[in-house]
Write a structure and sequence with these properties.
Helices cover 38% and strands 17% of the residues. Helix 7 packs parallel to helix 8. The structure holds 2-phosphoglycolic acid and zinc ion (ZN). Zinc ion binds next to loops.
């Protein structure tokens, strides 16, 4: 065993220019591990708290309290512990703050600490992080199937359109390199289309094109046009993935698309999404209904769960217990795994495992506020058989994650790419050409 000697938190800055928590863990033999907490903008109500100082300085976003927790009680509780005992370190964090959402320590303090411990243990074992994760938790390392954003929306684009993420997946690719090439072509085709319409207006928070559209469906039509302009047949090698993030515009069973000035109840919302599933080759859809609309999510899953991956993000907040309850109730068939929603590596891994044990998909995901931290590329590879959602095909806090997967591919071999397998139960289980649903 190698014991933790010191834990040191410092303030660094994320991709939106907000302060965030970085943690260095140094072991008694001098080996180090480092991690940075990301930050969401469309947050689930039940996810781990992103502890901010409030007040007027730095728009209330400073993290001095969270850093004080790292350098004070957390450092004291973890010093002397075996770095390779991740479960023990995470349990110690839990004992310090038993509140379900880490309201006392802050999920930003705990997630950076937990991931830094993991990195230190991997470094101490002289293993790349993905290998360390695979050896501890995995079923065999596989490079994930990416979901890559082409247009940003919702909370990442000042609600310019209501839908949050319009993405593509390339389940028909045979290598991770091929995914990158196809995505590059679609991404730049989408930019060219926007420019030709006089609607190129920069990018949203995760690097997707700014959504200067007159309706939400125009965004979908433009995505189809971009896929075609890139030389692809929508629904063959390339499919669409959406994050509706419906909690952002739906409450108490009412959904309001501001762009179309359209007010709907749950049934009308489900019907509208069903029409989209019929009209477009959508293989995956995240948070189709609000996080409080469990009955709606169950109904949506009953109607469409055999033909589309239905991911719970705000609804399930990387919580194994919520995944188990949702699976029992027949709500969703996949979960988004964001380590900072759970607050610790152990809880995130348990969520991934709970999903896979029920035959669900599991998508490891970045947040809209990101940094140079690449742990999620390793996590999705190490856990195996999964998917990875990082944002768009632009901006280094996004590209660094895709590039890290390419480096892992060099070590692991190109045939370690999982391909379309994660969508096998839904997309590849039916005739997937447009208009044949
Ligand atoms: P967030 O959203 O990181 O801004 O909360 C990402 C997502 O909804 O998947
Ligand atoms: Zn989401």
């Amino acid at each position: 065993m190698t014991a933790i000697e010191t834990i040191n938190g410092r303030r660094v800055w994320d991709s939106r220019g907000n302060p965030t928590v970085e943690v260095d863990v140094v072991l008694q033999n001098g080996v180090r591990g480092r991690a940075i907490a990301p930050a969401g903008a469309s947050r689930g109500r039940r996810e781990a708290v992103d502890l901010r100082d409030g007040g007027t300085g730095l728009r209330g976003m400073d993290v001095r309290r969270a850093l004080g927790n790292v350098n004070g009680p957390i450092a004291a509780a973890l010093a002397g512990r075996d770095a390779d005992d991740q479960a023990g370190a995470d349990a110690a964090l839990r004992r310090l703050d038993p509140s379900p959402m880490f309201e006392v320590l802050g999920g930003n303090a705990t997630v950076a600490t937990s991931l830094a411990v993991l990195n230190a243990a991997a470094a101490d074992a002289r293993k790349p992080l993905w290998r360390h994760i695979a050896d501890h938790y995995g079923t065999g390392p596989r490079l994930p199937l990416p979901e890559i954003q082409i247009f940003g929306g919702g909370a990442h684009a000042r609600e310019r359109i209501d839908i949050q993420d319009l993405m593509i997946m390339v389940p028909g690719a045979t290598s991770f390199d091929e995914v990158m090439e196809v995505t590059s072509a679609v991404y730049f085709a989408a930019g060219d289309i926007m420019a030709a319409k006089g609607r190129l207006a920069g990018i949203a928070d995760e690097g997707g094109w700014w959504p200067l559209f007159d309706s939400n469906e125009e965004a979908l039509e433009t995505l189809i046009a971009a896929i075609e302009m890139a030389g692809e047949t929508p629904g063959e090698r390339v499919v669409i993935s959406l994050d509706i993030a419906a909690s952002e515009f739906g409450r108490n069973g009412r959904y309001r698309l501001a762009l179309e000035d359209c007010d709907m109840d749950t049934g009308a919302m489900i019907d509208m999404l069903g029409r989209w599933l019929d009209a477009y080759p959508i293989a995956s859809i995240e948070d189709p209904l609000g996080e409080d609309d469990v009955a709606g999510t169950i109904e949506f899953t009953r109607r469409f769960g055999d033909r589309v991956q239905i991911i719970g993000d705000d609804y399930l907040v990387t919580n194994a217990g919520l995944v188990e309850a949702a699976a029992e109730a027949g709500a969703c068939n996949a979960v988004l795994v964001k380590v900072n929603q759970a607050g610790t590596v152990s809880a995130a891994v348990a969520t991934f495992a709970a999903a896979r044990a029920r035959g669900w998909g599991a998508v490891v995901s970045a947040r809209s506020g990101e940094t140079e931290d690449v742990a999620i590329s390793h996590l999705s590879t190490g856990l195996g058989g999964g998917q990875l959602k990082v944002g768009a095909f632009q901006r280094s806090e996004r590209m660094v994650k895709w590039n890290e997967c390419l480096r892992i591919q060099d070590e692991l071999g190109a045939d370690a790419f999982v391909g379309g397998a994660p969508l096998a139960a839904t997309w590849w289980g039916r005739d997937n050409r447009k208009g044949t649903t």
